[in-house]
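Researcher: Quick test of sequence recovery. Tokens follow.
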């Protein structure tokens, strides 16, 4: 029996893509049509997260994550994932008090970067994420160099993510803007780009990106699926 996966969800689109990936790819791994591990998911109103993010209240963000962790532990989850890159800044603040272990999204992505032979990757995501140590810490530990977009591009990423992708909107002009941002990362010597917002795979993929993509949402879902099957 596969171990139940607990999803600490934040925004709807990223969490939904993660959930769909687990369910859609579970059948092939389990060798049975329609099969997938048991999945539990919990989230407060996303507005509660955004309020705390805008105040840089990382302790408050962590407490929201911890509350979901306890809810999922009671529901029977065996470990936790959070399909939101930004809020991983708060994970170190609460991980020691968590009732269950976590898979870290940036750890999963960094492992995949090494496995695919990437040496210098660009980091995209919200301004909160891009200006944090969430990805640099995990990439540096594996000898992978990293580059972040310049400040104006960070503002554009923030706008597209929070006003369009999070509500499920995909404007062609914004997709073109994202492609230009990734193109500038390619000019800076990057050989891949981390889609470090769980909604970014809705707009970019290997087929449309100037650089190969490290899709944090699907990579986390696949890592959770593998861990569940091991348990």
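Model:
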């Amino acid at each position: 029996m596969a171990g139940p996966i607990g999803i600490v969800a934040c925004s709807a689109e990223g969490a939904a893509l993660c959930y769909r990936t687990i369910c859609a790819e579970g059948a092939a791994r389990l060798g049975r049509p329609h099969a997938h591990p048991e999945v539990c998911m919990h989230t407060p109103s996303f507005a509660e997260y955004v309020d705390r993010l805008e105040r840089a209240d990382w302790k408050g963000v962590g407490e929201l994550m911890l509350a979901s962790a306890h809810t999922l532990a009671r529901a029977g989850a065996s470990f936790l994932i959070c399909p939101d890159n930004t809020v991983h800044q708060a994970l170190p603040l609460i991980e020691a008090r968590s009732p269950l272990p976590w898979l870290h999204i940036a750890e999963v992505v960094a492992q995949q970067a090494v496995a695919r032979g990437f040496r210098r990757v660009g980091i995209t995501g919200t301004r909160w994420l891009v200006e944090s140590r969430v990805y640099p810490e995990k990439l540096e530990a594996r000898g992978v160099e990293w580059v972040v977009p310049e400040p104006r591009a960070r503002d554009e990423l923030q706008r597209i993510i929070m006003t369009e992708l999070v509500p499920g909107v995909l404007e062609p002009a914004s997709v073109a803007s994202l492609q230009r941002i990734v193109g500038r990362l390619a000019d800076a010597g990057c050989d891949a780009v981390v889609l470090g917002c769980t909604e970014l795979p809705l707009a970019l993929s290997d087929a449309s990106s100037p650089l190969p993509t490290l899709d944090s949402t699907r990579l986390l879902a696949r890592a959770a699926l593998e861990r569940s099957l091991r348990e």
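The chain has two domains: 5-104+219-230, 105-216.
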